[in-house]
Amino acid sequence: DTTLDMKPSDFEVRDNMFTAMDTRELNIRIHKEEIRGTGVMNDLLLEKYKRYVYPFSAFVLTLMGVALSSKKVRGGIGLSLGIGIALSFTYIVFIQFATMFSLKGGLPPLIAVLIPNVTFFLVALYLAIKAPK
Question: Which of 6, 7, 45, 119 is the most buried (most CB within 10 A)?
């Protein structure tokens, strides 16, 4: 006789329910999904890694903004501001692409979360090095 540690509530599917969970609840859900072997592990792990890595993006974008604003241009700050906003939107699009590659394309969730931050950190570092002192 085989007993399964499952309840009817385990079979209901709620889209993006895990985005409203706190980290402890998310870790418990990840553990349960590992035991069950369902296909939502990528979603759960992606959400978990986002919570740890994305706060770093504030540092990356701030470093980029400081590097861009340090350059004095005769026409004002309009060009630097435009470049900064364009890079920020590019960063957001890059995050969405990496997320979709993780969910649909088989890219590991940790790599998908790290790629945009590492790439834009390198860009910000380059801009900071090239910025006038």
Answer: 45
